[in-house]
Each structure stands twice: as structure tokens, then as C-alpha cells.
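INFO  loader      accepted 1 record
INFO  loader      residues=114
INFO  predictor   begin
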Amino acid sequence: VQLQASGGGLVQPGGSLRLSCAASGSIISIDAMGWYRQGPGKQRELVATIRNGGRTNYADSVKDRFTISRDNAKNTANLQMNSLKPEDTAVYYCFVLTRGSSYWGQGTQVTVSS
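INFO  predictor   done
INFO  writer      dumping C-alpha cells
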């Protein structure tokens, strides 16, 4: 299973960015997709997940600002990030859980700065 992450970049506080993650390879079924992030000098944080059936979970720090969605037919997930804050600056890593295994995409840098 391979994950291709895209999006990210530099944005001013209050701005928006969209991250995408596309899974390919020998995928029979995906149990969940989501993102972790790790900011400078911080511990890794689970940002958002979306499970089969569409159930979502968010870190308290991003609730009401971030929205995760999924296209099951394309094995892709998107993370819409609005009202970005400097503390959202981090490397974001998408992941996939499938049949008891986890797979990770390359990190995507998100920098929120004026």
C-alpha cells in the first residue's frame, strides 16, 4: 500500500489549506484514514480520523476548524483546514488502517505565519 500526500504550504493566520491523501496498491478495504501532525518541539498529535461509515474524530485543538472527508471509491481522504493558527504549524502525516496494518504517507509541511 502506498500513500501519496499533497497540499500544505505557507498560509497566513486565519487562512485555509487543504490536504489530500490517496492510497493505492493492494487494498481490499480501508478501515480508517486520517492525519497526525508533529509541530516543532511538540509530541505527535492525532488530528483527525474518518472511519467506515463516515464516523469522524478530531483533536480538541482543531474541532470546528478542520473537516475530514473521504472518497471511498477513490481511496482518498481530504483534510480541509480553516481558520488556521500559528500553532497549527507542523508536519502533517496521513495514514491508512487496513486489515490490521497501518501505512503512512510522506510528511507535508504546513506553516502558518504572517
